[in-house]
Design goal:
The chain has 118 residues and is mainly α. It has helices spanning 4-7, 21-28, 32-41, 59-74, 79-117, and strands at residues 19-20, 48-50, 54-57. The longest helix has 39 residues, at 79-117.
Length: 118
């Protein structure tokens, strides 16, 4: 996700469930209007909206925002390039999870076969 070198310049993420846009702004070093713009550009960002259209970000959102920030500001990606990079990582994560699930299912089925053969 975010390189360890980039973590040094940003504050640690507190152990809260939800963060306001102001808190996320401070945690990620990005202004609130930029966060609102990124919500339009990156489908991965979907903060919970409550009363009065107030945004509440979860820890995963903060991590994604830090990753977007690193891609745009540190690695020099364009918005489109960063979007493609994140979508590619999601696809790889999905494939990896599918492989892990298939391996786990295979192991469980082999154990079941052993039990049935007894």
């Amino acid at each position: 996700m975010l390189e360890p070198s980039n973590n040094d310049e940003l504050p640690a993420i507190p152990g809260k469930r939800y963060f306001t846009i102001g808190e996320v702004s401070e945690l990620c070093g990005v202004k609130p209007h930029v966060l609102r713009y990124w919500e339009q550009e990156f489908p991965q960002l979907k903060p919970v909206k409550r009363r009065g259209n107030r945004r509440y970000y979860q820890r995963q959102d903060v991590l994604v925002i830090r990753q977007i920030r690193a891609l745009l500001y540190d690695q020099g990606f364009t918005i489109g390039g960063a979007r493609n990079r994140l979508e590619g990582e999601e696809a790889r994560d999905d494939v990896t999870q599918a492989h892990q699930l298939a391996r786990q299912l295979r192991v469980e089925l082999e154990e079941l076969i052993k039990i049935l053969r007894r």
